[in-house]
Amino acid sequence: MLRLENVTKRYGVGAFGGRTFTAVRDVSFEVAPGEVVSLIGESGSGKSTIGKMILRLTPISEGRITLDGADIRGFARGRRKEYYRRVQGVFQDPFSCYNPIFKADRVLWMIKEEYFPRVPRAEWDERVESALRAVRLDPGAVLGRYPHQLSGGQLQRLLVARALLLDIRYLVADEITSMLDASTRIDVLNLLADLKTRGLGVLFITHDLALGNYIAAKTVVLRRGEVVEMGDTEKVFADPRHPYARHLLASVPQLHARWDGEQEERYGGCPVHEDAAAPEADGRAGPGRLVEVEPGHLVACTGPEGGCRVALARGGPAAAAAGGR
Amino acid sequence: MTLRVTDLKVYYKTLRGEVKALDGVTFELGDAEILGLAGESGCGKSTLGKALIRMDGRMRLRGGGVELDGERLPIDDDAAMNRYRYHRISLIPQYSMSALNPTRRIGRMIRELVESRGVRYADVEEELLRRLKLVGLDPDVLSRYPIELSGGMKQRTVMVISTLLNPSLLIADEVTSALDVSTQKAVAKALAGFRDRGFVKSMIFVTHDISLTYQIADTIMVMYAGKLVEKASASAIVSKPRHPYTQALINSLPEVGVRYTDRRLSGIPGAPPSLLKPPAGCRFRDRCPKAFARCAAEEPPVTEVASGHFVACWKG
Ligand SMILES: Nc1ncnc2c1ncn2[C@@H]1O[C@H](COP(=O)(O)OP(=O)(O)OP(=O)(O)O)[C@@H](O)[C@H]1O
Ligand SMILES: Nc1ncnc2c1ncn2[C@@H]1O[C@H](COP(=O)(O)OP(=O)(O)O)[C@@H](O)[C@H]1O
Ligand code: SF4
Ligand SMILES: [Mg+2]
Ligand SMILES: [Mg+2]
Asked: A276 or B161: whose pLDDT is higher?
């Protein structure tokens, strides 16, 4: 089990880190083996920061993350490899985590040298080949190339293959499908879903709700570093309660239906957003107050006192809509 | 007509031969038109974008040409293209968000950029502030470092910078793919707004996401393995696609509501052919459910099957 317990992350910003900025605030959820949890939220909401904390790429400011009960801070120095054999990440921007001077085969070979020094060459080549085929890459076409010679999608798939080579237990997949075309995207998703049946736990970070809905059993909706709604995917999607979750669902582009002009303009001051932000501003509602609106479905109270829209929403969607305005 | 691309061939030089990334593409882009460019990864979308503005060292022009506002562009002459870059054609490259120089404040970066293009910063500053505001950015972003901005903020900043000199053509390569749906929507709408306000005359909007393209594009062009396979109005592509590849692409889109456990969607089986030695005949034939003998022997020409609807398929 990979578990986040009241995790908070503050970054130092401004000259000499004088001010701090809270990128993630009091977040708790867990990913079980064989489970895909999707983490949804707008850009800047802290999704990647959560991914980076899980991958030990940035320190946790408060709270803790545990892997099968052990605080991941314990996997330092000599125990680093032990952790990374079990938990790996694939990122949004394939170019940033890729050394431009190594060809693809070298990148994969480095994994062997570091983690599987005893596997014979021939067997390793077979594993590489099957990992590449699993992500639908033609080994002959990619192995001899440098990253800049591959298209964004090819590179992204290569990174998934790289993570697959390590027989990991948890995968943090940060927007890995955003650069893939529709057809390849479905294949990569099906691939994750198949790995899940073999016991892999996946934190699927995405901005694409349709994809999250497609493979995840649980959904966590993040906004400005806080969880606003989470629970069983069907429940969250069938009946989103938080105004922000509703807003997200309404923004999903659909084939055959153009966004209608009447909808609120984000930059003109979206009433839903302003609304949801208000309680923070007046300080009456504390952050992270999640209310269980039905079994397996938690929603953050948007306050203020007496006017909590989530509480109103318990009356049903109609009441929520009325209360959300 | 803003842009006329005629039988354009751009290849990459590699040790194993030339990669025919763009292999004879012909299309036109009207004034005020937003053209959505879609297609599988590696089909040549970014190559097309780069060819129109800056060929990298390995790219070779192997045929055809490009006209912008009736003037032939010297796309294979890096120095001669300088006159057009940024002033007349602007490109927002794929991954540009992460390409912002992390050690420069945004404001300083913009100043350096416009000055390197022979424009005085003071002359554009007022317009810059006005446009930042228009896309919902506080002038304060100018004093921030890229790392301090969210993806959506960076993307909007890049959009404003790229269009500051009102280019005739803007190529936006996957500018929304890293963003969440609501930011995506805002960015896409802002782009359409740039066209409406005349900040750019016309635009090529590259994305994998056909449902998103459909929201703002007037026409959609679908490419496959370095070739144009279909081009038509956005609504025709979405509701009456004629090419088997376009049809398959549209069928592989998950819609909200479809779940893996209920219905497993499938991609298009197989993979695109190698562009080092593309096969003769139709390049999609290995994966095409409708392929027949002729498809292997002869390459299907691009044909106008209805007004403004172009298809390259023997059965289209
Ligand atoms: N510098 C290069 N040298 C050799 N081949 C290259 C180079 N850059 C791209 N290619 C090849 O050219 C083809 C087209 O690449 P391009 O980047 O245009 O694809 P794309 O359609 O933009 O894909 P994506 O959707 O993944 O961004 C691919 O087969 C790619 O591997
Ligand atoms: N190294 C950093 N220093 C300061 N602020 C940062 C840093 N990394 C991220 N941030 C800020 O933290 C917030 C969350 O970022 P991130 O986790 O990347 O969001 P997401 O992945 O959801 O788009 C953003 O406002 C971002 O600007
Ligand atoms: S030309 Fe033949 S192989 Fe190509 S798309 Fe049409 S039917 Fe399929
Ligand atoms: Mg991110
Ligand atoms: Mg590209």
From this structure: B161
Is B180 in contact with A213 (Cβ distance < 8 A)?
no
If you measure from the C-alpha of residue A42 to the centroid of ligand 4, how many angstroms do you get, rounded to a whole number? 9
In this prediction, residue A279 carries a pLDDT of 36
Mean pLDDT for chain A?
78
pLDDT at B228 over 70: yes
A179·B39 Cβ contact <8 A: no
- Domain locations in chain B as residue ranges: 3-88+167-255+263-269+300-311, 100-166
Ligand nearest to the CA of B151: 2
> Closest Cα to residue B233, out of B252, B251, B214, B249?
B214
ipTM over 0.90: no
Helices assigned H by DSSP within chain A: 47-54, 80-84, 104-115, 121-134, 139-142, 152-165, 182-197, 209-215, 233-238, 243-251, 271-282, 309-313, 317-324
Q: Which of A39-48, A73-82, A251-260, B246-255 reaches the highest mean pLDDT?
A: A73-82
d(CA A149, CA B59): 11
Q: Who among A154, A182, A213 is closest to B210 (CB)?
A: A182
**Ligand 2 close to Cβ of residue B178 (< 6 A):** no
Strands, sheet with B17-29, edge to edge from the N-terminal-most edge strand = B17-29, B3-14, B59-68, B71-72
pLDDT tens by residue, A106-160: 888 888 998 899 999 999 999 999 888 877 788 888 888 887 777 766 777 788 7
Residue A151 CA to ligand 1 centre (angstroms): 4
Using pLDDT thresholds of 50, 70 and 90, give the confidence band for residue A265: very low
Q: Atom 6 in ligand 3: which residue has the minimum CA distance?
A: B313
The answer to whether B94 contacts A266, with C-beta atoms less than 8 Å apart, is no
Q: Whose CA is nearest to atom 5 of ligand 3?
A: B313
Q: What is the pLDDT of residue A179?
A: 66
CATH class held by domain A2-224: alpha beta
Whether B55 contacts chain A with CB within 8 A: no
pLDDT digits (tens, 9 = 90+) for B168-190: 999 999 888 767 787 888 889 98
| Nearest ligand (C-alpha, residue A175) | 4
Q: Measured between beta carbons, which residues in chain B are less than 8 angstroms from residue A149?
A: 12, 14
Tell me phi and psi for residue B196, to 5 degrees: -60, -35
pTM of the model: 0.76
Neighbouring-strand partners of residue A39: A205, A220
Question: Which of A158, A153, A142 shows the shortest CA–CA distance to B19?
Answer: A142
Pick the CATH number of B3-88+167-255+263-269+300-311 from 3.40.50.300, 3.90.1170.50, 2.115.10.20, 3.40.630.30: 3.40.50.300
- Calculate Rg over the CA atoms of chain A: 21
Q: Which residues pair with A104 in a beta bridge?
A: none
Under DSSP, the state recorded for A296 is T
Q: How far apart are CA B154 and CA B148, in angstroms?
A: 9
**Residue nearest atom 4 in ligand 2 by C-alpha distance:** A11
On whether any CB of chain A is under 8 Å from the CB of B94, the answer is yes
Instruction: Spell out the domain ranges in chain A.
Output: 2-224, 240-325
Widest distance between CA atoms in chain A: 68
Torsion angle of the four alpha carbons A81, A82, A85, A91, in this order, in degrees rounded to the nearest 10: -60
